[in-house]
Write a structure and sequence with these properties.
Layout (H helix, E strand, L loop, with lengths): L2 E3 L2 E3 L9 H8 L18 E4 L2 E4 L12 E3 L1 H6 L9 H8 L9 H17 L17 H7 L10 H15 L9
Length: about 180
Amino acid sequence: MPITINGRAVDPPADPRVSLLDFCREQLGLTGSKKGCNQGACGACTMLVDGERILSCLSLAVQYDGRQVTTIEGLAANDEQGGGLHPLQRGFIEHDGFQCGYCTPGQICSGVALVAELKRGLPSHVTADLTGGVTPSREEIQERMSGNLCRCGAYNGIVEAISEYVAAELPDRQEVAA
């Protein structure tokens, strides 16, 4: 069964030991997602599978037969406004959410998944009220993004970009504290 990557059906690799990250980068030419630590500790390789974030360096490509994988390239290609970049990608540019850019693809994929988690009402470790829904506070965003590391220290811009995206995607929720 093929894997759908960024809307394109591809056959899984012949070697079942190939990680999803290496498959995308080396066999499909999708080099946006980065190999940081190759141990699942930095988040640079974060991709979306059926809308949920995964660490692609720790995931075997063959695990995703019949699933929908989205890389950073796929976010831009699937931009709902047709402007070429996903709204969160534009937010990272506007808020200086990157310096070297190495972690940026994983940060953006995690930010997109974060909004999906909030929409589903999934709590995090810092969610105060487990019965009243999740308020997308700065602390909530920081907790949910804690698995994505930035060596340059662009965290303020990253949180600002994600906060703006959350506010746009969840206008009925209490505003994000900047």
